[in-house]
Amino acid sequence: MGLKTDLETEVSRIFKTQWTTRDGQTVPDDQTVKLGNDAVKLRATVLYADLADSTKMVDKKKAEYSAEVYKTFLLCAARIITSHDGAITAYDGDRIMAVYIGNAKNTSAVKSAMKIRYAVGQIINPAKDKQYPSSVSEPVKHVVGIDTSDLFVAKTGVRGANDLVWVGRAANYAAKLSALPSPYIYITNEIFQNMAEEVKTHAGKSMWEAVLWNNFDNRTIYRSSWHWAID
After folding, report:
1. CA distance 229 to 117
2. What confidence tens digit (pLDDT) does each residue in 131-140 have?
3. Which residue ranges form the domains of the chain, and what is each CATH number?
């Protein structure tokens, strides 16, 4: 059989096969989900942290410099995420995706985002500036997007080259929010209404500004430029 026939057979099989689903108690990985129509359902919060202006950086700077920025950003983000019980589900070039579950998932994700801001401003940029003069480098900037929803997690690809696909609003919205202008953390109203006061206000002052998501559907979202110090 040729490739066209193989693809037609596989596509038809996927659409016809009944799904096997189960409720997840932990964040699934590629070992716990089968390649067929098998899926895990869970309520989760998704965080996307994305470097800003990375296209301009790789166009203008040496590859070694850009790689160092990528590596330091992703290293700090990953360590912070896991310290707040987030599960890293994907590295996609210059951004990282993480999933949080449990009763404190929204607060944990937001606190992670605030600590990533701290790491960029107080750890990465000072180290970069010490190594490279300002004529060579520009400040590292980033954006974080966070949303929460039901997720349907399945495996996609072929044997030997596959990954999980996270189907649900939170994965899509968090990714879209992380593409908004820097330098902010963006969260949906669902996150804002269901997170702890410690990540909402400081000394009686709100850390968040309500704005309209103009390039989507004009719904109200919240943005913040606050950080959370790392001990």
Report:
1. 9
2. 987 766 788 9
3. 21-224 (3.30.70.1230)
